[in-house]
Amino acid sequence: MAETGRNNGLADAAADLELADEDVLRAHWYGLLAAVLRAAPDRARLDQLAGLVGDETDFGADVSALADAAQAALAADPENLRQEHFDLFIGVGRGELLPYGSYYLAGFLYEKPLAQLRADMRRLGIARAEGVHEPEDHIAAVMEMMSGLITGAFVAAADLATQRQFFAAHLGSWAPRFFEDLETAECAGFYRSVGRVGRRFLAIESAAFEMTA
Prior knowledge:
By secondary structure, the chain is an all-alpha fold. Helix content is 66%, strand content 0%. The chain has a single domain (10-212), classed as TorD-like (Orthogonal Bundle), CATH 1.10.3480.10.
């Protein structure tokens, strides 16, 4: 989706910038959710997801459910998951869901929210990757941008105020509704658990940003 030529891994970013463990974890979840929303996970990604371990919190329970869903997908025909992703997000003509900020905020694609996102991308040094044809307000792209702002994968790591502003404008304003729709989508099987984790994760992020405002 959207990226710059400088694309550090999370481990390198943590070492170079001395990121707090919680920020490495936040970036990890943004990146992981972006990856499975961008494309149906392959076996290596499913193995990663199946190895997730939850805890006694609500988010932990959702993580455990995602791990179980990944384990089930590993035992099933890989084509099933590819078809599910296609039916949800691509479709013949369109998928069941339209995972774009402009659609959720304005009712149509390529509207003012996309222009506002592009303006912030220019300001923050985030460039559209060559060969990408999706609008930049695709949910996977915006999640990748949040991960990069945390780790410094773009020009520099963004301070908390910048992260909070970007989140409020380009994720918090619509992505929770997208994840709620994903949870209840008719075509969703594996992706229902992705919707639950995404919704809960963004709620945690939103509450944390409010506490630091």
